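stage 2 :: seqdesign
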């Protein structure tokens, strides 16, 4: 699902989510919220880092403007992935929003200590998910916050 954002091409969101059903629901939530983005999906932190660094098989991957990161995944989980992204000079300015089912205060605090840009709990209700995705888009895509590499208001 993609659409153009001005003359610069699509606004690219990298979804790091191990559950295919949750990935599909997130994609549907973007569509239902009326938000056109290029949603790229990888299943774990190892694949996310390969995607972000354009390592095989992601050598032609688009540079994302926003990462939506689940915490609880196999192989490299979201916590380790967030730490690696924010510790990499080439990636640390990339906005990372933790999008997870965890409501644990410890997970929230650890995510912010690791420099997550936001922490959003995934609701079980699709209407609530659509509302949260819409709010994320309003903030990150519509000029409330200028995402690196994209002018405000796009």
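stage 2 :: out
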């Amino acid at each position: 699902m993609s659409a153009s954002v001005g003359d610069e091409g699509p606004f690219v969101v990298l979804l790091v989510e191990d559950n295919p059903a949750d990935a599909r629901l997130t994609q549907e939530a973007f569509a239902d919220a009326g938000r056109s983005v290029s949603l790229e999906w990888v299943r774990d932190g190892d694949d996310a880092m390969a995607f972000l660094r354009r390592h095989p098989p992601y050598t032609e991957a688009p540079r994302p403007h926003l990462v939506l990161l689940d915490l609880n995944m196999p192989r490299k989980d979201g916590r380790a992935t967030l730490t690696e992204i924010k510790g990499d000079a080439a990636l640390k300015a990339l906005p990372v929003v933790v999008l997870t089912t965890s409501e644990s205060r410890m997970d929230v605090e650890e995510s912010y200590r690791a420099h997550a840009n936001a922490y959003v709990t995934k609701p079980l209700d699709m209407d609530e998910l659509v509302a949260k995705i819409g709010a994320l888009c309003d903030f990150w895509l519509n000029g409330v916050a200028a995402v690196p590499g994209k002018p405000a208001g796009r």
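stage 3 :: structure notes
- The chain has a mean pLDDT of 85.
- The longest helix spans residues 126-141.
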